[in-house]
Structures are given as C-alpha cells and as structure tokens.
C-alpha cells in the first residue's frame, strides 16, 4: 500500500472557502495558504473567482468554483449562464450541484442533459467539471446511478457532497463511486474530512481529489472542528 507524504495529500486537495460568512480577507488568506501548501485548487464562491484568479495567477494552484451551490435547483439555462460567467472570470474547474430533486423524481434524462450542457460549455474552454450529487440524500444504488449519468454526460469528476447537507462523504459512498466509475472519471470525496487519517483513507479507496476546508489542520495531523 502506498505511503502518502504530506505533499502527496496536499496535491489532491481542493481547499474550500464556501461558507456564506467568509470575507475577502478569508479568500486572500486561503490563497496564500494554498500556494504555501501546494494544494490542487482553491475552491471559491462565484463572486470570489476574479479575486482568486488574481491572487493565484503566478502559482500552479488552480481556481475552482461551485455552481448552483448548495442545492442544485437552478434551471439548466441558469447553470449554463453561471458556467459561462465563471469561465469569463477565470475559473479552471467547476463543481456543479446536480438537480437532486429531479434525480430523486426519476427524471434521469433531464439530469443527464443538464450536466451535459454545463460540461459542453466548460470543455469548450478547457475547464473541467465535477458533479456534486449530494450523496447523503441518496441510497448507494442511487449514488451509482448518479455517477453513471455524470459519466455519460462527459463530466470529469463525480463528487460526494457540498458539505452543507446533513451527511458528508463516507467510505461506503466513496466505495460505491469507485465501483461505478473508478478509472473512468475522477472521484472527489468532500465534506466532513477532518483528519489526516480520513484524507488518506479516501485516497487509498480510490478518490482522486479531496474537498477540505481545514486544510492546514488536516495536513498537520490535527483534528478539524468544522464539518467542512
């Protein structure tokens, strides 16, 4: 089994600055942290993309953002508009929330087509798309189905959760994702990753990216007191 170094884990982290009360100062501090620790990306709210892009422009850290966050209930046209705006502002990866209610209603074609529309918009500009399925609301069979729809729509990653719903990533959910689309799409475990052991555990399972808010604490072996 691979032995993970701090830099190995850091390089898989999307550092999240997504809480509604986080300020410009928080984004600036997070950008400095991301550069210092060598994470994959700084994941911000849409309103913070331009600032993040400016702060990270001379670094290898990517700018990622959330879209239709955290409920996924915007119309397809709105999601495509949001993707275009994010791309214009300088984003390099987009984490979109799928329409959870439509999925739970069995409207799979509508969910697939919505994801496809965002993916096609993003891929035209070499921007990757991760699809957040908010898997805490789903059975493991539904997790697998949502992964299949995302893959069919051309998504680059499937992602467990926003971190704002009642449940976050779990080993069982990540295992279901790996079984469904492992090797075909990236897999992002996100929400509730509060320790080094949890982070490494998900990578060992087959996750290829981690969504973490308390990045420094996790990388330094502590226990974060936040659920994101």
Short summary:
The chain has helices at 6-10, 24-37, 49-56, 76-89, 100-104, 108-123, 140-152, 171-181, 196-205, 215-219; strands at residues 13-17, 41-44, 62-67, 93-97, 128-132, 157-159, 186-190, 209-212.
Describe the structure.
Strands 1-2-3-4-5-6-7-8 form an 8-stranded parallel beta barrel, surrounded by 7 helices. 44% of the residues lie in helices and 16% in strands. The chain has a single domain (6-219), classed as Alpha-Beta Barrel (TIM Barrel), CATH 3.20.20. The longest helix is centred in the middle third of the chain and has 16 residues, at 108-123. The protein starts with 5 loop residues before the first helix and ends in a 9-residue tail after the last helix. The chain has helices spanning 6-10, 24-37, 49-56, 76-89, 100-104, 108-123, 140-152, 171-181, 196-205, 215-219, and strands spanning 13-17, 41-44, 62-67, 93-97, 128-132, 157-159, 186-190, 209-212. It is globular, with a radius of gyration of 16 Å. It has 228 residues and is α/β, with parallel strands linked by helices. The mean pLDDT is 97.
Give structural attributes.
single chain, 228 residues, alpha/beta, TIM Barrel, eight-stranded parallel beta barrel
> CATH homologous superfamily name?
Aldolase class I
Whole-Å distance between the termini?
27 Å
Label the overall shape.
globular
Low-confidence stretches: none
Number of helices: 10
What is the share of helical residues?
40-55%
How much strand content do the residues show? Answer: 15-25%
Give the H and E element order. HEHEHEHEHHEHEHEHEH
- By CATH reckoning, the class would read Alpha Beta
CATH architecture: Alpha-Beta Barrel
CATH fold topology? TIM Barrel
